[in-house]
Specification:
Oligomer: single chain
Distance between the termini: 38 Å
Length: 100
């Protein structure tokens, strides 16, 4: 018998839907939720209407930096740090709020 709370499961699904709508890759969903790969894949297809992108996530800092300064990254980081200190939220929820 599973002892998983329905509210916890609903929160996980809501978090995954939010991340999908923000453009998160399937690997991010797997690391930030307790949902199975198969469920996340079905949810991704249902929410976005298409299959998730294939391949690995970028890991090189060159991928993130462009030839001109990226003010958006600085703004995001500062909002993230502020929310992390000022609000009692899970880390992934802080990332979501800072991104929005």
């Amino acid at each position: 018998m599973r002892t998983k709370s329905l509210l916890t499961e609903a929160k996980q699904i809501d978090r995954a839907v939010t991340l999908i709508n923000l453009g998160a890759r399937l690997q991010v969903l797997e690391s930030e939720t307790d949902m199975s790969y198969e469920r996340l894949l079905r949810l991704y297809k249902e929410v976005s209407g298409k299959s998730p992108s294939k391949g690995q996530l970028p890991f090189s800092t060159d991928w993130f930096m462009t030839w001109q300064p990226n003010i958006h990254a600085s703004l995001f980081l500062n909002i993230h740090e502020y929310l992390n200190k000022a609000a009692e939220m899970d880390e992934i929820d802080v990332v979501i709020k800072a991104y929005q």
